[in-house]
UniProtKB/TrEMBL annotation:
NCBIfam families: ATP_dep_HslV, PRK05456.1. Belongs to the peptidase T1B family. HslV subfamily. Allosterically activated by HslU binding. GO terms for biological process: proteolysis involved in protein catabolic process. This is ATP-dependent protease subunit HslV. GO terms for cellular component: HslUV protease complex; proteasome core complex. PANTHER family: ATP-DEPENDENT PROTEASE SUBUNIT HSLV, METALLOPROTEASE TLDD. A double ring-shaped homohexamer of HslV is capped on each side by a ring-shaped HslU homohexamer. The assembly of the HslU/HslV complex is dependent on binding of ATP. Its main location: cytoplasm. Na(+) binds at A162, C165, T168. Keywords: Allosteric enzyme, Cytoplasm, Hydrolase, Metal-binding, Protease, Sodium, Threonine protease. One of its GO terms (molecular function) is metal ion binding. It comes from Catalinimonas alkaloidigena. SUPFAM superfamilies: N-terminal nucleophile aminohydrolases (Ntn hydrolases).
């Protein structure tokens, strides 16, 4: 049985970036751990990253992403593209089962093992089991409650997802860039 399941959402709103995740890791139909930290700060707090999928795989990918960031002078987009190319073509990396959201000032990206580097529509990125619930909530909040901060939108989106998705809990970790 694989350990998986989570919800990660990132929002760029009014010049602020917030990236958050719940803390649940699921093994089959059992909660294996309820307080996993799936959001990390990189490059002395200039870049945020969050992951969904296999935890060990995600840590390997985050390490590779950080190496790429160092190689390309902190250029997140370039590092993401180079990671995606390696992820798709390298025999070892190709087997890794995870997805990443990366964020820096004014930019939000989703990176997948199929070679995708996506800049999401509406400045909302969501991955994981509860991603569609969180994304739907975030879209509604951006449209109908624009006075909220990016952090408040992420928190509420994750709480709504946790109320609906059995693979998402209310143990939230949220990081912000201003």
């Amino acid at each position: 049985m694989k350990i998986h399941a989570t919800t990660v959402v990132g929002i760029l709103h009014n010049g602020q970036i917030a990236l958050g995740a719940d803390g649940q890791a699921t093994m089959g139909n059992t909660v294996a751990k309820s307080n996993v930290r799936k959001v990390r700060s990189l490059m002395n707090g200039k870049i945020l990253t969050g992951f969904a999928g296999s935890t060990a795989d995600a840590f390997s990918l985050i390490d590779r992403f950080e190496e790429k960031l160092n190689s390309y002078g902190g250029n997140m987009r370039r590092a993401a593209i180079e990671l995606a190319k390696d992820w798709r073509t390298d025999r070892y990396l190709r087997r890794l089962e995870s997805m990443l959201i990366t964020a820096t000032q004014g930019e939000l990206l989703i990176i997948s093992g199929t070679g995708d580097v996506l800049e999401p529509d509406n400045e909302i990125a969501a991955i994981g089991s509860g991603s569609m619930y969180a994304q739907s909530a975030a879209l509604a909040l951006k449209k109908h409650a624009p006075q909220l901060t990016a952090e408040e939108m992420v928190r509420e989106s994750l709480n709504i997802a946790a109320d609906i998705c059995i693979y998402t809990n209310h143990n939230l970790v949220i990081e912000t860039l201003k």
